[in-house]
């Protein structure tokens, strides 16, 4: 079971990773460099052992704003966002609206008033659901054989 937890953790981190890389152009799949992740706290619930593909999750991402912006952009591969919240360093919720860019697999949180200030830290909390994929993209189920037994 230990390998399963590690594999699940890695798959979800890849799904939500917010790498601070500049956009090459508006068609780029890279995230803007206006924010950078500092830490992740993930919780996943699956019933893969019962043959079910559905899962639920929660992620808390601590980010630092690197450039003045009103939008925080994350990657989102085939996850359905149920709830989200952005809080400042004092735990005060920041009013934001969300949008998705399905072709680029972006999930964007836009501040409704003001901007995210350079040097400030925020916590993003997202509850989501999804389906384990049958291919090798996103969060997917995998198996291996040990001494003739499929695990």
Describe the fold and architecture.
- The structure is a single chain.
- The protein has 151 residues and is mostly beta strands.
- The protein is 10% helix and 45% strand.
- The strands form three sheets. The chain has a five-stranded antiparallel β-sheet, covered by helices on one side. A three-stranded antiparallel β-sheet has the order 3-7-6, with no helix packed on it.
- Strand 4 and strand 5 form a beta hairpin.
- The chain is elongated.
Key attributes of the depicted protein:
10 strands, five-stranded antiparallel sheet, 151 residues, 45% strand, three-stranded antiparallel sheet
Provide the fold topology.
Layout (H helix, E strand, L loop, with lengths): L1 H15 L18 E12 L7 E12 L5 E5 L3 E10 L4 E2 L1 E6 L4 E6 L9 E11 L13 E2 L2 E2 L1
Antiparallel strand pairs: 1-2, 2-8, 3-7, 4-5, 4-8, 6-7, 9-10
Summarize the structure.
With 151 residues, this protein is mainly beta.
* Separation of the first and last Cα atoms: 10 Å
Largest beta sheet: strand ordering: 1-2-8-4-5
Helix/strand class: mainly beta
Count of helical regions: 1
Largest sheet: 5 strands, antiparallel
- Order of SSEs, N→C? HEEEEEEEEEE
- Report the C-alpha radius of gyration, rounded: 17 Å
Helix content: under 10%
